[in-house]
C-alpha cells in the first residue's frame, strides 16, 4: 500500500480530525471485519483500512505520510503483517463499545434530570407577561454530606476487586491472537470505590427531595404550548452532580370574549340593523381597557373592523398584533305595530316592498344546484 491514498481508503478529508478518522475506521471495521464477512477480498480490504488507520491515527506517522516519507520506517511488523500500532482496542470498540485500554473509574456525580411543570395563564398575562412564584418538588443537595453520600467523618473505601480502577480486564483469544478487554467492576459498579457508611440523610445518593420556591419572569407573547427553559433549575444529580434544566409548559386559559390566533385577537359584536344602516359608535372592551369604535353607515353582517396594535405582544419582537371585530347584524324577529308600520313605509320609499331577490355573484339557487348535480357538473 505504499502508493495508496490513506485518506481515500477511510473516506475522510485530508484535514479530518482524529475523532472523524476514528469514527470512519470503526464504521468500516464493523462492515469489513473477517468475523462478519469472510470473503478474501473483504479481508484484504479490512487490512487496508486498518493500515490506513494505523498511520492517520498516529500524529508522527501521519506527518511523515503527508510529507511523502515512509510512515513505517523503523517500525517492526506485527503478526499478520500489521505494524506495531495495530489498533486492537479500536476494533473492540467498533464491535463491543469497549477496548483494551484502561478508562479509569467513573464519577459518582452525574447530571440531574430535567423537569417540566405546567403554568396556567390568562390571556392578559400571556399578552403582556407576568412574574410567578412556582413551588417545585425536586431533588436538592444533601446538606449533611454535601453530595458525597458518606456519613460524616467517613470516606469511600477503595474497591479491593479492581483496586480502584473501576474496571476489570479479561484476556480472550481470537483469530488475531490474545485480546484484552475491559468491563465495569461488578463489585463497585465501575466507581472504583465502595461507600460502606452511607449518609443517613440521603442514603448515599448525595441529594434529598424537598419543595422549593422559585420566582420566574414569563415574557410577553407566550401562548398555549410554549416551553420556557430555565437552565440549571432542575433537580441536582446523583452524587451532588450538576442540576438539570426546568421547563415551563404554558397553558393559556380560554377567554370569555376574545379568541386568540397567533398574535391577533378576534371577537364578535351584535348590532341592530338600524345601527348598521345608520352607523354608530360602540364601546369595545380591549386588553388595554374600554375604547370607542366607529361603525360606518351601511355596515353589513360579517364585516370586520380592525383595531391595529390592540392584540398580543409579539414574542421576542417589537410591536403587537391586531384586534379584529367581526360584526353580526341582528334582524328583529318581532315588531310592534308602530315599528312594523315604519318599516313598511321605509320599504315603500326604497322600492323594496317586493325585492327581486337576486343571487349574489358566484351563488346558485337550490334548483340550479340540483340540476348541476344530475348533469354531473
From TrEMBL:
Keyword tRNA processing among UniProt keywords: no
GO biological process, one term: DNA replication
Domain J: residue ranges: 5-69
Residues given in the record as Zn(2+) 2 binding sites: 159, 162, 185, 188
Chief location category: cytoplasm
Domain CR-type as annotated: residue spans: 129-211
Bound cofactor: record note: Binds 2 Zn(2+) ions per monomer.
Origin: domain of life: Bacteria
CXXCXGXG motif repeats, residue ranges: 142-149, 159-166, 185-192, 199-206
Residues given in the record as Zn(2+) 1 binding sites: 142, 145, 199, 202
GO cellular component term, pick one: cytoplasm
GO molecular function, one term: heat shock protein binding
Coiled coil region boundaries: none
Repeat among keywords: yes
Zn-finger region bounds: CR-type: 129-211
Subcellular location, record wording: Cytoplasm
Named cofactor requirement(s): Zn(2+)
Matches recorded under CDD domains: DnaJ, DnaJ_C, DnaJ_zf
Keywords: Chaperone, Cytoplasm, DNA replication, Metal-binding, Repeat, Stress response, Zinc, Zinc-finger
Domain commentary: The J domain is necessary and sufficient to stimulate DnaK ATPase activity. Zinc center 1 plays an important role in the autonomous, DnaK-independent chaperone activity of DnaJ. Zinc center 2 is essential for interaction with DnaK and for DnaJ activity.
Family: Belongs to the DnaJ family.
Subunit structure comment from the entry: Homodimer.
Biological role: Participates actively in the response to hyperosmotic and heat shock by preventing the aggregation of stress-denatured proteins and by disaggregating proteins, also in an autonomous, DnaK-independent fashion. Unfolded proteins bind initially to DnaJ; upon interaction with the DnaJ-bound protein, DnaK hydrolyzes its bound ATP, resulting in the formation of a stable complex. GrpE releases ADP from DnaK; ATP binding to DnaK triggers the release of the substrate protein, thus completing the reaction cycle.
Name used for this protein in its record: Chaperone protein DnaJ
UniProt source species: Nonomuraea soli
High-level lineage: Bacteria, Bacillati, Actinomycetota, Actinomycetes, Streptosporangiales
Gene name of the encoded protein: dnaJ
